[in-house]
Structures are given as structure tokens and as C-alpha cells.
Amino acid sequence: MRLSVFFVVIIGLLLSRFGFAEDDSQLKDPFASGPPIVAQMPAYSQWTITYTYGDLPKPPVPASGAPSNAPLSQRPLRVVVTKTDSVRHEEEDLEQNLESNLWVDGDVMVEQKPRNPELNAYMATAAAKNNDFPQLDWVSRSTFVGIESQQGRKCLVYKASVDLLEIIDPYAYKFGLQAKSEVPVTAYVDLQTRYPVLLQFEATSLEYTMNPAPSVSLVMPNEFAKAAAAMKARIQAAIPHPARP
């Protein structure tokens, strides 16, 4: 009798140690308590995406004296995403000490690419408006494979093969462009919060860190706001209006 009690205690400790005794119902049906992933963060929120490239070869860097339009290594290193209501700002740090900025205001996106002072304004895709994690748009019940521990948290694990552009430039992908090169991807989503934790493809990892929510509303810089207003005016002008009687 004492021996059986001893084994029960040991098994219970092991289950608790690896996080499988807290809520057995979540393990049996993880989608009964939440979606596969949170599509939209709270109205006021901020998070950071940190890129790690492992042993992937870097893009070429031009030799000294090369023309300014020569290809540069411009892989992202870190992206800080801040949103307050309908306004969203993505500040991206890239290799070679470059940076890019993307502002989304409702139906309009305004982007400033690295090494280019020009602003590009265009209609926001559904991915930009409805999904705060467009690189994880493929995460669903059908791609769920199990539950594992990742970074000390129990995580839902998803696996699939997706077009490479959907990961490296999801906004371009949603506009209809494709890299025509599929890669296997794995995503880890926190079982409790349903926030993304890690995205892996090839030798690249994207780590998601949730930051404290901003305390004040975002305000677009003046030049970005002008470009957004001009694009909104063009969109309105293109909408057909019924003729007055």
C-alpha cells in the first residue's frame, strides 16, 4: 500500500514539474478554452519580434566604392510593433544599421524603406487591418500538432509548409505576390494567453516578446500623415458615387 502511494506521489510531482497537471482539460481539448492564436492584440499594446539567423548565409554586402544601388544585407534584426486603436507603427531595425518604418491608419499604410527618403502609401491589406501577426496567418486547428514546453511555457505547436514570402514579407504576400518557394515552418503559441512565442523556419527564428502597453495614443509624424491623407483622398475619389437626380 505504501509503495503504491509512493509511486502516485512521484508521478504527480513529475507531471507538475513538466507542467501537465495544471489543467488537464486544456491538454485534452486546447481549443475549448481559446482560439489557435490571438489574431488581434488589445487596442493599446506593444510587442517586439527578435530575429535570429543561425547558420544561414548572409546576403551579399557590396565592396567599398560600390554604387549606392548595390544589394545590401538588409535582413531584419528587430521589429517593435506599437498599436493604439486603429493606428499602428512598425519600427524595424535591419542589418548594416538600417531601419524602416511602417504606419497603418485604418485603411491606409505608409511605408519608408531603408536608404530611401520617399514614402510609399497604399491601401492596407486585410492582413494589416485584421491580423496583428500576419506571418502566422497559417496557424489554425488544421496545422496543430501537439503541446510542448518552450521557454518555460506550455505551448501549442503548429507545423506547415508555406510560401517563403508569407514569412519574410507577409504584406507583399497578401497583395498577391509569391516567392514560389515553400519552406517548412513551426510556430509555438502560449497555451494560456494564445500569444505567439516563437516562429521557426529553416535556420531562422522569430521570438515574440510582449511589452507594457503604451500609455498615450500614437500620432503619425507629419510627413506620414500627409501621405496617408493623400491616399485616403485618392481612395474616396475612386469610389463611384450615384448621380444626383
Descriptive tags:
245 residues; alpha+beta; 11-stranded antiparallel beta sheet; 11 strands; 35% strand
List the helices and strands and how they pair.
Elements: H1 2-17, H2 24-28, E1 44-52, E2 76-84, E3 87-94, E4 98-105, E5 108-112, E6 119-123, H3 126-130, E7 144-150, E8 153-163, H4 164-168, H5 170-174, E9 182-190, E10 196-201, E11 204-211, H6 222-238
Antiparallel strand pairs: 1-2, 1-11, 2-3, 3-4, 4-5, 5-6, 7-8, 8-9, 9-10, 10-11
Poorly predicted regions: 1-22, 59-72
CATH topology category name: outer membrane lipoprotein receptor (LolB), chain A
Strand content: 25-35%
Tell me the strand order in the biggest sheet: 6-5-4-3-2-1-11-10-9-8-7
In CATH, what is the class? Answer: Mainly Beta
Task: Describe what this molecule looks like in 3D.
The structure is a single chain. The chain is α+β, with helices and mostly antiparallel strands and 245 residues long. It has one domain (42-56, 71-233): outer membrane lipoprotein receptor (LolB), chain A (Clam). It is 22% helix and 35% strand. Strands 6-5-4-3-2-1-11-10-9-8-7 form an 11-stranded antiparallel β-sheet. The protein is globular. It starts with a helix and ends in a 7-residue tail after the last helix. 19% of the residues are buried.
